[in-house]
Design goal:
The chain is an alpha/beta fold and 484 residues long. It folds into 3 domains: 205 residues, Four Helix Bundle (Hemerythrin (Met), subunit A) (Up-down Bundle); 90 residues, Elongation Factor Tu (Ef-tu), domain 3 (Beta Barrel); 123 residues, Rossmann fold (3-Layer(aba) Sandwich). Helix content is 46%, strand content 14%. It has 15 helices and 11 strands. Strands 9-8-7-10-11 form a 5-stranded parallel beta sheet, sandwiched between helices. A 3-stranded antiparallel beta sheet has the order 1-2-5, with no helix packed on it. Strands 4-3-6 form a 3-stranded antiparallel beta sheet. The longest helix has 34 residues. The radius of gyration is 26 Å and the shape is elongated.
């Protein structure tokens, strides 16, 4: 591993006269298998095939148009203010329900979507779509109360009570809508920051019950479905189809894979302060076909951990019947990994993610890692051929997890065009500010490379700005976030 000196004419760059000091290697815990085998080389860059996000979005928009056509077909005329309000309520109700179906499909973990679009992009679509869906649901509630109040010539409070307690299936619809609002509030950024991941995940499961209750209300009361068998069949087909896809990829496939592979903890090893590696063994693990850069959702079957499935990337290519994850203690679940014992049973779902070599389009590659974000990039660094440079940023030298492995990979005879550039915030003379000038100083041809980025949110945002300023097109910056 080398640490280079940014050119003195790069504004804000600190001089770096020597290699970052190597901290003492951390102790190993509970003897067990080591990673073996040399680096695997692959051919040159592969062109990124198509833009899967476009066809996925195209299907979503086409479905939305079909929902509007459903309303149009079931509406003979719209008369007066009450009629306009009521039909606006019907449109927003149909679109809100359709939005619920789309949200479920996006999170069904369909391999074509997970590998083609990317898990973090799907999560962003899910979050944005969830906000639109909740807003449509709010509009539906307000418009239907207002429209019905005008029709019956009553006040909105009296009309609300009449709708909720005297219309069939309306109580179910009300409960489902309130539950959907609660999930939406818990998913707001301000609320999510105050919630543990496990708590947020548990609240989010209420979405399933909310959608079931709302669907039951809609097919019983919806003007587009009463006396319209074709429309009702279409709606049932939509929700049953999404439910089957969800059940297959979220339940059937994980159960079958875990029964087949029977994964267990082989070893827990300390890598750096607060960072441990968990080695996983099992049967026929090569059948998982995990690509470098991908991750699994891990559930460790011990008290206090079995009910939470957290996403952790593989930190080494799968080989010799072993998988490995490397995790920094940042929450209850990740801190508990250090206490796992060999033989602990594991339930894992995956592999997921699109931060793989399949997105590569250039011969030259820059891997930009911050902190424990090194984990997926370490696997890519070992397996990518061609001109590959890894920039690794950390707070202190002792925080450079997996440094010994990176030293060995960079020094290997088969990796003549593989470089590791290491920078830390403390001591400051070994730092690298994330600015366009500093990036061009250490990687002069950065604008001609594909860039793979993984790190904490603040670092990733700064890196995006610096890369854009250095001339790297957004389509060649590949980034996945676990801030779901």
């Amino acid at each position: 591993m080398t640490a280079v000196r940014p050119e003195h004419n790069a504004p804000g760059a600190q001089r770096n006269p020597a290699a970052v000091p190597h901290p003492h290697a951390g102790p190993r815990r509970r003897g067990g298998p080591r990673q073996r085998g040399g680096p695997r080389q692959r051919g040159g860059p592969r062109q990124r095939g198509g833009r899967p996000e476009w066809w996925a979005l195209g299907l979503v928009y086409a479905g939305g148009l079909a929902v509007l056509a459903l309303w149009w077909h079931g509406t003979s005329s719209v008369v007066g203010a009450a009629g306009w309000l009521t039909d606006a309520a019907r449109i927003t109700g149909l679109l809100a329900a359709y939005g619920c179906a789309v949200m479920l499909a996006l999170m069904a973990r369909v391999p074509a979507l997970e590998g083609g679009v990317g898990t973090d992009r799907l999560a962003r679509w899910h979050a944005a779509g969830g906000r639109y869906t909740v807003c449509l649901a709010v509009a539906h509630v307000l418009l239907v109360i207002w429209g019905y109040a005008l029709t019956s010539r009553s006040d909105v409070i009296h009309q609300t009570g009449t709708l909720v307690f005297h219309y069939p299936e309306m109580l179910k619809g009300t409960l489902g809508t309130l539950l959907l609002f609660a999930v939406g509030i818990a998913s707001m950024r301000a609320a999510r920051r105050r919630l543990r991941y496990e708590t947020w995940h548990l609240i989010h499961l209420g979405t399933y019950l909310a959608i079931f209750l709302v669907f039951s209300h809609q097919v019983a009361n919806g003007a587009q479905f009463v006396g319209q068998p074709l429309a009702k069949a279409f709606w049932y087909a939509l929700f049953i189809g999404v439910s089957l896809v969800l059940a297959w990829f979220r339940f059937v496939v994980p159960v079958a894979r875990n029964l087949r592979h029977r994964m267990r903890v082989a070893e827990v090893r300390f890598e750096s302060p607060g960072v441990v590696s968990v080695y996983v063994t099992g049967r026929r693990l090569d059948g998982l076909r995990a690509a470098p850069g991908q991750f699994f959702r891990w559930r460790f079957l011990v008290p206090g951990m079995w009910w939470a499935a957290n996403p952790y990337s593989l930190s080494a290519p799968a080989r010799d019947g072993l998988l490995r994850i490397t995790v920094k203690a940042s929450g209850d679940h990740s801190r508990a990994l250090a206490r796992l014992r060999p033989g602990t049973r594991i339930w894992a779902e995956g592999p997921y993610g699109a931060l793989t070599e399949a997105r590569r389009s250039r011969r030259g590659v820059l891997l930009l890692a911050g902190g424990v974000g090194i984990t997926p990039l370490r696997t890519l660094f070992e397996t990518m051929a061609g001109d590959v440079t890894l920039i690794y940023l950390a707070r202190r030298p002792q925080d450079l997890a997996l440094r010994g492995e990176l030293d060995a990979l960079a020094a290997s005879s088969s990796a003549a065009r593989r470089r590791v550039l290491c920078f830390v915030d403390d001591p400051s003379e070994y730092s690298l500010p994330l600015t366009p000038e500093a990036l061009r100083a250490v990687v002069p041809d950065v604008a001609e490379r594909d860039v793979y980025l993984c790190g904490p949110p603040g670092m990733a945002d700064a890196a995006h700005r610096a890369l854009r300023g250095a001339g790297v097109p957004g389509r060649r910056v590949h980034h996945e976030s676990f801030e779901f």
